[in-house]
């Protein structure tokens, strides 16, 4: 059941790929879309296409995330949907200006901080918070709260898979802490999509995603965005289950065993709040 009331929808990572596709689809359906991206030119271009506002932020700098949250809070009387879509598999192990491993920060800590800073508005709006996760959580992820930066076992794929696992744990814990106050949450795997995924990495995925064959066999960005669009336009309980992780349009049956660990989700939340300097609530 699709809503007929236009929503205010914030999409990060919306200057390209499935974020841009979702922005176009949701705008065409009558919603007001805030386009968030790293590239000023590409972000402004998508915003012009969809008739929405654009906001520029680099998630490798948490000061940018704090500024973004303040700008979004000032710009909108409510936020009905926050789509934490920015992220990806990155390159060699590097530290951000904030001192965190880059994959961890871009994929998990930055969206965690953005959500936390906007939480009062999201609660007042009875919002949905959507995480773009990945099957990589099951294939490569292993969370060690004593080594979030993978100092002992870094590979680009392990860091990415673990960050996508953290997206799922964040989703379940957000549901546990705040669903009874009105906030809903979901995470999803968009599938293999013909985007710039892996372009900044040495991942073995990169040749596929950059090849002509890859462009032929991978799904279109619009197909990859379809679940995000569904979560944004339908109500939890009617169109989807809050607190769940989806693959192929359904609640995933096979997940990383750590994704079902409620105590790990709680401890990850508290540790993340400590690292980004917000109240764990």
Automatic annotation (TrEMBL):
Mitochondrion as UniProt keyword: no
Record protein name field: SDR family NAD(P)-dependent oxidoreductase
Superkingdom of origin organism: Bacteria
Annotated Pfam families: adh_short
Keywords: Oxidoreductase
Entry-linked InterPro entries: NAD(P)-bd_dom_sf, SDR_fam
Keyword Oxidoreductase: yes
